[in-house]
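Following up on my earlier thread - several people asked me to post the actual chain instead of describing it. Fair enough. Here it is, all 234 residues.
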Amino acid sequence: MLVPKPLKKGALSTSTPYEQGFLTLSAVYAVDADWDQKYLITDLRWVQALLGRDPEQATGISIKLNEQGIQDPAYWARQIQKWAPNQYVVKTRIQLNSALYKMLNTEYAATYGVFTLVLIIALFNLVGAMITIILDKRQNADTLFALGLTSRDIQRIYLIQGIGLSVIGGLGGLLLGSALIGSQLYFGWLEIGAGLAYPVAFEWKNFLLVVVTISVLGSITSWVASRRAARVDS
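Reply from S.P.:
Thanks for posting it. Predicted structure:
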């Protein structure tokens, strides 16, 4: 590795205007184009000697939180900024790589939107299934009318049945998805490179978001189907 020597005022030119050091490449990793083309990870003391820096000098310090105490990086960034001198800038990993995380958040929102549209299309099958059940159980509905039930009561029955179908289907899909994520975390069967498992994580906020989405869309679809049921039976 060759590094240009810093120019010093009044210093004579030398035959070698650079410092050189020898490295052994042990591994290659890929994060994104910006990181891959700019950074090389090696020993700090070796780099300080190559650049002619003091052993106490560094361009940055990375801090990793342990599993105890407050896990909010933004909180600790504010606390450290209070303790550090004014010339130091403290940033979280998200703030340091804001472009990358903006891209990931955009991808997350787009993925959620696409799968919500897929869910809406799939719920049309629920409407079809409910109408099929309504036509198939027409005689049973007439019997319930004869026993004194009203159209609103029949509509409530079909509404509960539709919500039950959507909830059971949604929970089945969530359990299957959770099982796939758990198997990936435990076995790492899906790889993006040699020996590098595709990174996944299970987050309860995403789980609850999917539950709420399925419940709301399923309830609306069931309500529409039950209103059609009341019209058919009347």
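The longest strand covers residues 2-4. That should answer part of your original question.
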